[in-house]
Amino acid sequence: MRSLRQFSAVNVQRVTFSEGVEQELVNDFYEFLYICSGTGKLKKGGQEVSFEKGDIFFINRMKQYRISANTEIELITSRFTEAGKRVLRGLIDQSSNVIVSLSKAKSPLNLKVRLENNDRALAEKIVFLMLDMNEHPEKNENLFYFQLLSLVAIIERNLSFGENKNLKQSGLKMIDKILKHIHKNIKDPKMLALPFMAETFRMPLHQLPIYFKQEIGISIKGYIGRERLTATAYLLTHTTDTISQICRSFGYSDESHFYKRFKKQYGLSPSDYRQKASR
Q1: Pair (115, 194) in one structural domain
Q2: Does residue 247 belong to any structural domain of this protein?
Q3: Lowest-pLDDT choice from 14-23, 87-96, 185-194, 258-267
């Protein structure tokens, strides 16, 4: 098994696999794989799918996957670290949720994204632009994020096409609405209360958490808690708001409770996290 080393927040590379090669990888970064040429198979999480030119995969951090090359394969990998993910999440939040997160792409229902023709050409331009920008990554890091946002938007609107078209479309649309509601109201605990959400989406209260976990792979309370902490971490590193102000803005009534949850997720107290980021 091969594991690639860590790098700066965003990195784009061209990678080739010779015909007949089978390689297992697990990497300490998030990754988009765009297939430029060749055919093969990718296996992740117990599922295996075939791929060809124009297909895109999203690989979560520290997730093992295997590539098997039927022919010589050329792909472009766009990688970003945990720090890069936080910046990307902040930009998504600032976009008024026009762009939603890649939670659906992480679902086993969407192991591969098959793009429509027009979007395939556009995605290819974006990944090759990022590849050119990577010649001077220190100058272009901020620009990388906006290209990644465009790629996210293209992927999101294609998740119901290709091999996923026979899935329950109503289910995918419903989970998309729930995710948008969560991110739009991430600072408002009342809007994210399960009884309110169940009523909003006309689902039985006991069914909402079951449905959410089936679609996303994490409990709805765990997802909301994680995304709230991700948003607070972004404010800690990108604003001068006090920790108390950030707590109040996200509806944390008990500051010590926020400290405990933050430290559990990031391994540092909010003040230590901000100090480390400033260094």
Answers
A1: no
A2: yes
A3: 87-96
